[in-house]
User: What shape does this take?
Amino acid sequence: MLQLRPISAECVARRAASACDSCGARAFSVCGGLAEQDLLRLDALAERINLRPGEALTRQGDPADHLFNITSGSVRVFGLMPDGRRQITGFLFSGDFLGLAAEADYAFSAEAIEPVTVCRFDAREYRALMLRTPALEAQLFRRMSHELTAARDQMMLLGRKTAVERLASFLLDLPTHDPARPTAPGHVRLPMTRSEIADYLGLTIETVSRALTRLKTTGVIRLLSLTELRIEQPDRLRAIAQGETRSCA
Amino acid sequence: MLQLRPISAECVARRAASACDSCGARAFSVCGGLAEQDLLRLDALAERINLRPGEALTRQGDPADHLFNITSGSVRVFGLMPDGRRQITGFLFSGDFLGLAAEADYAFSAEAIEPVTVCRFDAREYRALMLRTPALEAQLFRRMSHELTAARDQMMLLGRKTAVERLASFLLDLPTHDPARPTAPGHVRLPMTRSEIADYLGLTIETVSRALTRLKTTGVIRLLSLTELRIEQPDRLRAIAQGETRSCA
DNA sequence: CGCAGCCTTGACCATTATCAACGCTGGTGG
DNA sequence: CCACCAGCGTTGATAATGGTCAAGGCTGCG
Assistant: This one.
């Protein structure tokens, strides 16, 4: 498995390089705190897997046997109701972890959006390694803490924000999580479909489309293509996201 | 501070006694895994505080200097938007932890609903103790993991469920978290106001009231008083919560 | 070139929010 | 002891946001 060694090194490098504004520096220092031998142990558990769009990493209800570290591409995490209603609870990008649950079964499904490469770990072995590696445990602790804060922000969005406010919040958040975003400031890549955005924001595709149009016609954003746009007026977009204006409602 | 010793023992006992259906057994074993000397160290950091309804444990934006363990009563955790819109992200009851964040500042506010007693820890000392106490770390790791799963379920509720489905889900969930619930099966205590329920479910008080009335008139629940009700048809309530019926829509 | 899939736009509808009035309940003071 | 008041909850009428249904457009691929 020695040929796998570059994988976790790559994970660490990507996460360090990612400008996750709120946690970049911290994540880097934690990753940096992992000793060379810890990385080697991680590699021994790792398996590299390629997934095509739509293929599943985890399925709601299946035994939680694996942990994943996304190496490239993007992933949707979602739950389904019996009648097919879908709620996407998050998008994952390279550097993100998946499957960090204490439960025996996955509570949610995860599927590739774009072609994805992941680093897959056996959950039991990973947990055992974690117990022996405080730096790794601390790293995951911080990640879970950030995820929890993000989850609460998302509750605020879903419970109390209007359609336009939700979309504005989404457009501001997305590039801070996607290391594959374009380098030009204000440029946002949308690797997911309108349907996925809708299921993430608790809306329908039509409402997402209309909200985008409204932001476009008011000059706050410019659509460069279906999957790329530019934020023309960041301050106004922030104001809208926080509900500080009725000008766009 | 020796007189504080009973506090964490009490916390442990309460958590163990609570029939948190999904995690009760596990939480108990983890708490049981704490050695006597770990409990003593915890006590040395602990300070008992009483709060009256409406008083704050944490405030959005304040430095996150403390951790809390609720000993009795109930607490609302919430975020506010600039214009006053409120989203309650969770209710906490005796045995629950608060303030487990890696961030420097509290991201959300927490206030007492009923008269509350808490066990307050200095965050830095607690973290230091955690590093020296793997059992404590593992316990918190599990709790965070459960919270994360609960947060995702709540996203499903807020993003995709109807008003009646939200209320049904809430009534089923609440007693599994509230150790002070009445002992009679099917009895649910509502220590929070309609306004708090509304802000938790992403609705208005009027819609909460109407949804309760609908569940009452269809015979699924019976209102015993403003703050207490009985679930008459648990299976039907579960079906409604999962959206498996249109009979109540 | 044509088709399939996704996106946008429009017309209409439904759920829920808003506004308003009324009722209940518990505490206070005449 | 009863009346009043304040606060919370319920109910009703109306309005608005977002959902549903439907048609048409764009884009990329065979």
